[in-house]
Amino acid sequence: MAAKEDxxxxxxxxxxxxxxxxxxPYILWLLSNENSLRFGEIAARIPGISAKVLTDRLRKLEASxxxxxxYKPTVPPTVSYSLTARGxxxxxxxxxxxxxxxxxxxxxxxKEGKTEIAAE
Amino acid sequence: MAAKEDxxxxxxxxxxxxxxxxxxPYILWLLSNENSLRFGEIAARIPGISAKVLTDRLRKLEASxxxxxxYKPTVPPTVSYSLTARGxxxxxxxxxxxxxxxxxxxxxxxKEGKTEIAAE
DNA sequence: GCAAGTAGTTACCTAAAGGTAAGTAATGAG
DNA sequence: CTCATTACTTACCTTTAGGTAACTACTTGC
Lengths: 120, 120
Description:
Two copies of one chain form a homodimer.
Chain A: H1 11-19, H2 24-34, E1 37-38, H3 39-45, H4 51-63, E2 67-72, E3 78-83, H5 85-88, H6 91-113
The structure holds a DNA duplex.
């Protein structure tokens, strides 16, 4: 598994490697809408994520240059995250994906409303 | 881990659950461009994927209604995969993502060409 | 009658991802 | 003097995903 970044045949693989992963696109989507969120705020918006994993995701996104970490050494530390210019470039893609998601969600709700007549 | 599809708070999570995963978006992207591919052809375009995992991804995409499986019981069986109408709705999103990917790829290549003068 | 070829399936095993829980720093509140 | 707070980090342990390899079916070619 140490030979995966070599065959960067197409850029698609590269970008997927950066934004894929369990909660990663969702974090980007949150930051894409709220423009700046603190660690705890992100955690609160993603029920079920652990601090360990969230930290890991944020570090990786930061390393990829997609998000910016703003650490303020106040008494209880204040850490805010926001998209970088590069990260912001994903906004339209994420928005497009969200539109599809919303559409499918509505379609599926309609079908559910018909209580499985579609079994025919 | 059997309590993850319940909190379908926002559709984004739902769609991410369907198209996320190691090679999934890439498979969709391939089918989005080639309109129909056989099992072996997909495998050949994704170096490093095993038959087991590819089968798994294809089954899940089929279960989500994003791809269509066309099995022809010829002597050596011929199985083709293509996007369903719903799967095709992802095309513009994937294309948008690819555009960003290509752009970043070019930017990164430029920077590499400058051999780290950007340290300033 | 045995190998080849497609598209898997299955069993088994290992590596990595993720969860939980506890610890940390610094300070203000009680 | 101790607790609470924020944003982690670390250790430990379990679960899961994924890899590898072998096996299947069915017919053709040799």
